[in-house]
Amino acid sequence: MLHKMEWDSTGGGLEVSNVVPPHIHESSQSMSSTSSSISEHEFSCHCCYDILVNPTTLTCGHNFCRHCLALWWESSHKNECPECREKWEGFPRINILLRDATDKLFHDVVHRRRAEIQANPKISRSLLAFQRYGDNLGRARTNQNKGAGIFFSGVLVALTCVAVMVLVYHWGSGVVEQHDLLISKPVSHWTPEEVVLWLEQLGPWAQLYREPFQQENVNGRLLLMLGDEELLKSPYSIENQAHRRAILAELDRVKALGVKPPQNLWEYKAANAGKSLFLLYALKRSPRLTLFYLYLFDYSETFLPFLHTCCPAITHIDQSVRESSFLNTQLEPSWRQWAEFLVKYLLLPYQLIAEFAWDWLAVHYWTSRFIIVNAMLLSVLEGCALWRLWTAARIRTLPRKMWNHLWKMLSQGFAFALLWPFVPQFVCNCLFYWALYFSPIINIDLVVQQLMHPETQAL
């Protein structure tokens, strides 16, 4: 069934009728009659009122010959439509579909007009000037984007240098090696100097009792034998009941673990190398699932201190337990703390990580700042991803994406648990420091791409 278009003189339009060709010859005749029945007026330029040659479509939708538009631009020096005076955006391009249609329907006329245009030097100069204008406009935009890219590249290079300097300082300072003995050496083998070092790490208030421990030359074995009565009597004379309870609470932890419990990031990494690497990447990829994992399997040691740090209690804590950070973080959270934590957990999980890192600024100055910046960048990336789902009307796919994400995290965690014992320690250290110091720098570039090109899919 072939469609033949006939001109309706009464209606002023095209009438489509169905014709069944008896053989190939009549089919070719119907095709030739179709092209001849279409008027050239339907494909005429509104400037020269002749057939379109290299038709160019403007933003408003009007079509003009390429050379007519060039002549108009050269004479008026305006980026606006010659007919409706609406300004066009960017640089007008040739409408390829319309050009191919005019070439097929009016081949002879278009061929003749192109020859006339090429023979006219004035039109050739106008077309050349118009094309140069378009090239300069594209080059200016490219340089503008390149300038922004150079700026952000410089920022990333500067941050990378800072990260390298922090890493070199961390390795060269030997802070980890200084405390590595206490978190790996049994308490019974501690020297008097190591006992004093352990006491100093309990807090500034512990400095008051440093001299009695040094004078009595208390080693690890004597430390394990100390009780409430011994600390109250001479020569220790710790009359403050809160101080005694704090020391005894930390001493109970030491007795239970056999070594000094980690008290900062580097000690925690040295004592739990695989767990620290797992938590670092898991909190970055899926903070909600990671916190739920800590709630189920590491409640007292990690989850409770994390919750008390991010959502501190509004009510005043009893003075008897105020001095001990361990006793403070072992209290059951109030309903206000749970409510605050759940709101942040559902809406802003990365803010919880930033607040926890903020509490460690005095201990890890630069490292905490890298973690805070990374948490802010990850929050922006998560917001951009949700905004794309909302604007693209694909919010209904969110449950399916969440299920896929859950399955992906579980499979990756299981694979990590199986492969962790076979990974060299050097590789694990490289991955740990890369995620800690260089991941924020990469996320800065991702955020810039998201803000400049919102349609780009996030990684």
Summarize the structure.
The chain is mainly alpha-helical and 459 residues long. It has helices at 24-37, 66-76, 96-105, 107-119, 121-173, 175-184, 192-200, 210-215, 220-225, 228-232, 241-257, 265-271, 273-285, 287-297, 299-310, 319-322, 325-329, 335-347, 349-358, 365-391, 398-419, 425-452; strands at 2-8, 13-19, 56-57, 63-64, 93-94.
Provide structural commentary.
- It is a multi-pass membrane protein.
- Keywords: Apoptosis, Endoplasmic reticulum, Glycoprotein, Membrane, Metal-binding, Transferase, Transmembrane, Transmembrane helix, Ubl conjugation, Zinc, Zinc-finger.
- The chain has 459 residues and is mainly α.
- Helix content is 67%, strand content 4%.
- The chain is built from 22 helices and five strands.
- A three-stranded antiparallel beta sheet has the order 4-3-5. Strands 1-2 form a two-stranded antiparallel ribbon.
- Helix 2 packs across helix 5, helix 6 packs across helix 12 and helix 13 packs across helix 14.
- The N terminus is likely disordered.
